[in-house]
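Section 3.1 - Work completed
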Amino acid sequence: MRTHFEIEPIRRLWRLAFPLIIANISTPILGLADAAIAGHLEYAFYLAAVTVGAELLVAFFGVFSFLRMGTTGMVAQAVGADDNSLSFSILLHMITLATVIGIALFVLGSHAITPILALAQVPAEMHRPLEEYLETRLWGGPANLALLVLTGWFIGRGHTQVALYLAISINLLNVCLNYTLAIGFQMNSFGIALGTVISEYVGLTIACTILALDLKNTKRLIKQNWQLPLIIRLIKVNLPLMIRTIALHSVFVTLSIFAATLGTVEAASIGLILVLLTTAAYALDGFAYAAEIEAGQSLGERHFNRFIDSLKGGAILSGISAVTLISIFTIFKLQIFSALTDFNAVIEQASGLMVWFSGLVLVLCWSYWLDGIFIGLTKTVDMCLTMCFSVGVGWLGGLWAFGPTSLDSLMGAFLMFSTIRTLSLAFRLPGVVEEVRLRSDQNHLRS
């Protein structure tokens, strides 16, 4: 009979999740630092170019986040099965895919920026800085996407501290370079973009160095050949993830558009709530990543007991963390909003939406955790179908039922989408658990 039945899974998940939580939180801090640097340049349009350009690229590159998620799930399963050769083959194939996509985005994106900005009727003084910022950042596309793959590979192997060191070193270098180039060398928004690109390639170099040292210590000979069955599997795993990501982004884009039609104060208020929600999501994603590792390695190891224990631990930690975040943001909401804006009307409006924010975090914390489980098990078709169902029934149905005529109706539709997103994944969970049980070693089944 095992001791510490309930505590050990929680401790194990916490050890995996904590470095990832710190790494994730450093990302929005970088965005705030860039905005602060741009805000001290000579003209306001540099700030607009950096903030708008960064948001566009987050949405643009975010479509390819499947490179990180798919890599983590498949590598975790290979690690659980003690198959180093497969683990490296997955990395080789995904790095190649990321490089090809990154180069294609640079070539196509460089030609598309000018007509897109013209179509969007960007103000004349902002046009050139924004165009320059986007063109420069596209140079970092191959490094950006390759880092997604390498980060996913390290996480899948359970090396979460490596992911932390990478994130912290890249973001610290990024801030230093951006400040030096933009203000010290007076390169303005172009300097911020250039500093980001340089830090991405330096980060890629660091990641490759860590990878080389890791492989040097691998005793088993690793084959570097192309495998058609693996390529087919990669497509099956990653294509649904890409479709799912596009569907998810469509919700946030349309939410922002509908909020903008209500007025400037309303759009800014929704923006502040989304900033808080994004920050909470970055923190809670640490547990989702830990769930990816545990689920994938448990499946590869065919260890059902470990999988069940990780489910219980993840559920407990996600719930506790969600309540903690809600409490912190609710208690300090005025201080947080006042630090982000000086407009009292926006602060008052956003404060009134905190009830919606609390409901969203309580619902979505389980969704992030379930996402991690399904990614670790590479059940990406389920993720895609449930997301498309949630967008169609939850988001579009919510807009039809409540109408996009007020902030409360928009938040109600968004909460409806989030609830259906969580429930649809939860509905599939028992079937997934049964599949893991059937594929597990009988020696690892609890009587």
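Second construct:
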Amino acid sequence: MASAAQTSQPFGPSDRLYAAIGDFLADHRLSVDPVNYGFAHRVLSQPQSALAATVARITDGGVRLTSRDIEDMGCRAGAAGATVERNDDGDGKPAESPNAMMQALVARTQMQVEDFADTVATMRAETQVFGRDLLAGADAIRLASGAAVEDITQLATTMLDRVQAAEERLAAATVEAEALRVELEAARDDARRDPLTGLANRRAFEDAFAEATAAVEPLCIALCDIDRFKSVNDRFGHAVGDRVLKVIAEALREACGENLVARYGGEEFAILFTGTAIETVVATLDAARGAVAAKRYRLRETDAPLGAVTFSGGVSAYLEGEAMGSVMGRADRLLYVAKHAGRNAIKADGEICQPSA
């Protein structure tokens, strides 16, 4: 039991920090383990750090942190008893969303920048001190004192050691910064890519359209949709449906060459054709449509026939100055005209490709 003297003493900074960490873990309903405690200590003991700013941004509005958030910010579980919420993809590793990965990388990059700034500031301060000491030593040298020369030598040796240590820190920070740059590029790429098919996603397609409209080349947008896709999922399950999506994605990617193919949403694909006449676009998509429709697919597990897989499409040419929504709207209407006309067809501005016999 604590003595009266002990209990009457005011709390010091360490006591307050310890209490704040306990409150932090309780507020966020985090288990008291080394990983979570260490994370809370870093946040609360360095309130001006990039990590603390990231936590403040995530928790704005009363949102609670989770163990997964702590993982995403670079505090990987590894201590015994650590509690980590996982969403496995089947390989035992937690699945991270592109946004979570980007958030963690941004936090790490901010901390890296702060480390650079601290190292440079330290080198500058040490150089200033060295300069002052060197000037003082120069005055002593003019007095021809042997002790002064020895002091200058010692001073120079100390400064060289400090410079070498700083250079090593900068070299290590440069290596880490380059690794972060590579990770950031990969994360940006992942954030613009559909994880199932590997195609560009909707955001990437919209960005590509905005860039393409700045050029003078003709543009066409095609929207393609898998016919009766819901029945595939209902009859065979989503795993088979995912394989069908991959088949159509690959067929469109091969047929469209350098033109951007994106999974626009669900079973719908969007293709941005640049510098290509609409007649050529229609012929390209119709060739892909015919090749897909001619195949007969079987289930991998049972070898039972899946039946024919087909898709329909609508193609519209971009008119100078119009918004993306306008040309997409025309392509979408043409797509549904093709659906209502019997599916397995491509319709375009002023031209229709009929289903194969």
